[in-house]
């Protein structure tokens, strides 16, 4: 029933800035802000696997319930309770993800100061594009997680409905349709978010190259 999220993250900090890593130039300072932003998203990375595993578990529970008849109502109730616990865990993962992204966004805001200090107009233009792309990325992530939380609420309603002995097929079909519609929105936001993340990573590496930062692979 659920459509899984496979959201991309910012490219990992695979470079070490050589020389004055303290950031004596605007370019070096901007580099450090960008890589610290990546580090701030570490909690986001950590929740992706358990979140996807929970989604897989929910699909298994849903399939089991749909395969059962109402004569096995006690088993349906038991499985529904498992699903509700699962939903609570998924909500916790999403909240951790949002917190991580919020911290990263605050870190990235520091970039404005150094963008203004860039002497090269070409580099400044590239940095401003980086800023614009990242802001769009954060906005998409907010839309993505908001949609996901709404889907969890609909999922919660569904499993609560399963615990009603007088549940009608019409009610069930209507709820499932609403859930599927919501997950379609999630897939759309996820695709847009992934594209924006990929765009930012490419822009970032281009900026590093054009700024002639002395970097090497760690």
Topology:
Blueprint: E1 15-17, H1 26-40, H2 42-67, H3 73-108, H4 111-117, H5 121-161, H6 169-210, E2 215-217
Antiparallel strand pairs: 1-2
Helix pairs in contact: 1-3, 1-4, 2-3, 3-5, 4-5, 5-6
Molecular structure report:
With 218 residues, the chain is an all-alpha fold. The chain has a domain at 44-98 and 126-211: Up-down Bundle (Four Helix Bundle (Hemerythrin (Met), subunit A)). It contains six helices and two strands. Strands 1-2 form a two-stranded antiparallel sheet. α3 (73-108) packs antiparallel against α5 (121-161). The longest helix has 42 residues, at 169-210. 27% of the residues are buried. The model is unreliable at 1-8 and 12-23 (pLDDT under 50).
Provide a compact summary of the structure:
This protein is mainly alpha-helical. 77% of the residues lie in helices and 3% in strands.
Strand line-up in the sheet with most strands:
1-2
CATH H-tier superfamily of the domain at 44-98 and 126-211: YkyA-like
- SSE-based structural type: mainly alpha
Average pLDDT metric: 87
CATH topology of the domain at 44-98 and 126-211: Four Helix Bundle (Hemerythrin (Met), subunit A)
**Count of distinct strands:** 2
